[in-house]
Amino acid sequence: MIKKRLRDRHSYVAVLAFILAGTLGAYNADHVHGAAYSHNQAPIAEDQGHEHQHEHEHQHQHEHDNHDAEEGQLYAEWSFQPNEAAAGQAIAIDLQIADAEGEPLQKFEDNHERKLHLIIVGEDLGYFDHVHPEYAGNGLFRQYIVLPEGGKYKLFADFQPAGYAHTTVSTTLHVDGEHKFERMIEDQERVKTTDKAVVELAASALAAGQESELAFTFRHPRTGAALTDLQPYLGAIGHVVIISEDLEQYLHVHPVNERGNGPEARFVTSFPAEGLYRIWGQFQREGETFIVPFTVRVQ
User: What is the dihedral sign for C-alpha 105, 109, 110, 112?
Assistant: First the structure.
């Protein structure tokens, strides 16, 4: 049945989504099974304007647009259960990945210790989560979530099937329930305080199409001393996700020096278009992950 649906290139629904406020949770499948699924499917090879950037000694960039004929076309199908998602209720998310013939793919490369990274953001980018669905085999990934507010949510999944290029697909999830939309405002001061660190962001050359360095510095939240005890998070000193206000531009950036421990973590990227962007830095200290969001304007 999946093979037949995925082969029908005229019946697919373009995969683009919104996702806001969500508290991640793992739930027994019995809590959500039995309701009808909603389906959202599309060929992955369509240009979706998403990029995945990895920084080592120099920048390596994998663009998620048209894969060439040698790589072949892939298809992704999103399923949500129950069909009418509601705030405060468990939602099962399935992502089925198949080749151009509709056959489920079997093998996926590990990318920073996981086979698939799922980014969940709200329509106004007020909510962010980064989770890792379980691989159930036969090209199927599954994740259970609970979203505390209604509204539109956008999900970005990035992964690399064995023998294919690094790929990103996205979809929209509509959730019933109240939600107050809050428009993004550029940060006038790029300093954020958590219980793990005071984090300052210095960003150079915030101009579309130009290389920009994002330098995060870390100080102790009580003493103000420089921190040098950051711990690896998914195999690196940190990860950065960047999404534009219109939800059309997605970048997942890894650090220049993955093995650092502070007091600085540097990332290099290029913003594809003008506008407001939200930047989330993800780091780990004392065994706990902490996230710091910043909003910048790109000229």
Answer: negative
Judge whether 289 and 255 are in contact, CB under 8 Å. Answer: no
Using alpha carbons only, give the angle 54, 184, 273 rounded to the nearest 5 degrees. Answer: 45
Q: Which of 99, 80, 101 is nearest to 91 (CA)?
A: 80
Q: Walk me through the domains of the chain, giving residue ranges and CATH numbers.
A: 2-48+64-175 (2.60.40.1930), 191-298 (2.60.40.10)
Phi-psi group of 195: left, alpha or beta (phi > 0 → left; psi -120 to 50 → alpha; rest → beta): alpha
Q: Can you tell me the distance from the alpha carbon of 157 to that of 159, in angstroms, rounded to the nearest whole number?
A: 7
User: Smallest Cα–Cα separation from 194: which of 296, 281, 295, 297?
Assistant: 281
pLDDT tens figures, 189-223: 999 999 999 999 999 989 999 999 999 999 999 99
> What is the tens place of the pLDDT at every residue in 2-35?
433 333 322 232 232 322 223 332 222 222 222 2
CA–CA separation, 89 and 97 (whole Å): 26
Q: How many H-runs (helices) and E-runs (strands) does the chain carry?
A: 1, 20
- Structure pTM? 0.79
| DSSP per position, 61-95 | EEEESPPPTTT--EEEEEEEESSS-BTTSEEEEEE
